[in-house]
Amino acid sequence: MTALTAINLGTIPAGSDGDTVRSAFVKVNNNVTILNTQATLTSASLATARALTSADMGKRIKINISTAATLNWPQASTCAADQVIQLVNAGIGVITLAAATGSGDTVPVVTVLNPGDTATFDTDGVSTWGILASTALTVSAAGAGAVARSLVSKLRDFRVNAADFGAVPGLDIGPAIQRAHDAGATVIEVNAGQFPWLTAVTCTNPIQIIGAGYAESPNPSTGTWFENRQTGFTPLTFSGTNARGSAVRRCAFWESNHPSSVVGWTPAANDYLIKVLNTLGGVEIDDVYMVRVNKGIYSFNSGHFHIKKLRGQIYTNPIQIDSCYDIPAIDYMHIWTFYTSDNNIMAYQQANLDVIWSLRCDGLLLGNIFAFGTRSVIRCDSSAYGVTTKLYANSLCVDFSKYGIWIPSGANNTTVQVANLTTEGEAWPSTGVGIPGGAAVQIDANNCEVQIGSIHTQRYYNSPIVLNGQANRIDFGTVWFELSNQANNGSPLFNLANSAGGTNQVNVAGYIRSDNSNSAPTVNSSTNANLGVSALANKGAGASDEPRLFWGGGNSTLQTISPNTNSDLYLRAWGPAGSTRLQANNSTILRVDSPNPGDSNLLVRSNTGSVSVVMESGSTSAGISFAAKGTGNILMNSPLSVPGYSFSALPSASTYPNCLVRVGDRSNRLVISDSTNWRFMDGTVAV
């Protein structure tokens, strides 16, 4: 801008040696002329592309063109020095700025206005245009082929900090997060500090909220901590399909409004801290710590939802998933008494805390889950949208929990597969005794199928496996029960409901091992349920290495299960010298062997009022041999009935040597064969 000229006032006090009145007003007029060229911009509009002229200088021109267009600046020499023009692209087309045709003027660095951009330019009145301010500064990456972009667009490539939008430790962070999201940020970093979260935030576009980490501690300490102090309030919600790709990482949450511990304690009725609603796609919660929290994360209608490295003490429900139709996943979860092991709070947790509460959910993938002090670690329930199907888990470790896996009534047709399950059902405070009514696996619904590769249970007051519904099936690989039936009331290892509506079934492919379980029966006697075992073994302390069949105390049934109408049951010893033994009271009462493979076998058949023992053989004739040992004899405790014939129908004596029969028409006298004749007991030949 041309310099303004000051009036010479002369020497104080008279100033007679200063400018005359006329010369002073000449300076004033000159200054007015100069300032007039810098007057406040006036508004104008432009609806079609054209070349700008000097008449457009000093104006704010709103460009409203619906297609891409090129505008030419006025020739710089036709404008006064320091004149300005402001251009606002209010249309939807990209505006390109160029020098006046044939002018040779130097243009500024900004030559493109994207929709929404604003830029203010000035000229030296000779041959150069400059830029005073712009939202459309362009930058280019190094290297051939790089395309210039606006500075705003480039800045959005980088992580913004919540502090840029007003986040200050100790003050509500909700408005800052919402402003950053609404401004188009895709990654928001939050500095270390403790931030109350008092204003609900809804994210409808993909955004990652990343903290500065945290320290696992009972109370807020180092790192990024978000505080909820309101009931019925959700601080953060991801909503809609455009929010897919969002994430929360490396931060901690805590709640400050829970009451102090008393008998019968319950937490404040706080809602879930994070909700993922109707995204139909992936949102990640990664490396998040929640302590002194009532409810953690709720997902609805959002497939591919992924939680990993969730730690903390959450009183009622860390995760609930519903209406999820496509493969959510939860990896490495650690629920423990990070805040307190207070008896009253632990009593609430063991009666109410369900760690992973899955309702309608297809293909839930779980990996490396540990939970302490809960009602259940996996609760597969039902909702208006359906039940859980195809839940897969690799390793679940459960401690001081009433249930490991719980399928409540109504969750019919639930299906679950678990590779390894370790459960411990001890009541808190620790006395070594299980929670009454607890179970490692309990199914109260119908038509459910559960498969568990390996299970190890400890400290169950009653039965570790309970099927209360009907037509349920559990398949196990290997089973190890310790300290079951602590009530010492005959609670079986497998408590299987007697069901008229569909038989319950348990199959064990490997072995059943039971230690220190007060001689618990394997299965309850008053049931029509089936317990099928491919191999059983007792390999507890002091057990020998010989292969054996072992069955628990009480009444047990060993039977085949087959889709065929009839199916045989084989008990087979190993090797040519092996034998099959039946024992009672630790003594063998029957041993069956076959040192020489043959084609004969004994059939025992139950008839009405009698039992038949029949020799079966591929040979024309086969006998039955009874042999006492040493001087022992064969004792009959009831009268012996021998076959009777009429004299004329007696079989050949040579066919039945040393055999005894009765002759009916000879006064029922007994005769014995000497291989040639039948003789009466006095030795005379029968005639």
Question: How would you characterize the overall build of this protein?
Answer:
The chain has 687 residues and is mainly β. Helices cover 6% and strands 38% of the residues. The protein folds into 5 domains: 1-36, no CATH class; 44-155, Jelly Rolls (Sandwich), CATH 2.60.120; 170-322, no CATH class; 353-550; 644-680, no CATH class. The termini are far apart.
Q: Which helices and strands, and how do they pair?
A:
Elements: H1 21-36, E1 42-46, E2 59-63, E3 69-72, E4 84-89, E5 95-98, E6 112-113, E7 118-123, E8 129-134, E9 138-139, E10 149-150, H2 151-155, E11 160-161, H3 174-182, E12 187-189, E13 193-196, E14 201-203, E15 208-210, E16 224-228, E17 236-239, E18 247-255, E19 272-277, E20 284-300, E21 306-322, E22 329-335, H4 343-352, E23 354-358, E24 361-362, E25 365-380, E26 382-383, E27 386-389, E28 391-407, E29 415-424, E30 439-443, E31 449-458, E32 465-467, E33 473-482, E34 494-496, E35 505-508, E36 512-515, E37 530-533, E38 580-584, E39 587-592, E40 600-607, E41 610-617, E42 644-645, E43 660-663, E44 669-673, E45 678-680
Parallel strand pairs: 1-2, 2-4, 3-5, 11-12, 12-15, 13-16, 14-17, 15-18, 16-18, 17-19, 18-20, 19-20, 20-21, 21-22, 21-23, 22-25, 23-25, 24-27, 25-28, 28-29, 28-30, 29-31, 30-32, 31-33, 32-34, 33-35, 33-36, 35-37, 42-43
Antiparallel strand pairs: 4-7, 5-6, 7-8, 9-10, 26-27, 38-39, 40-41, 43-44, 44-45
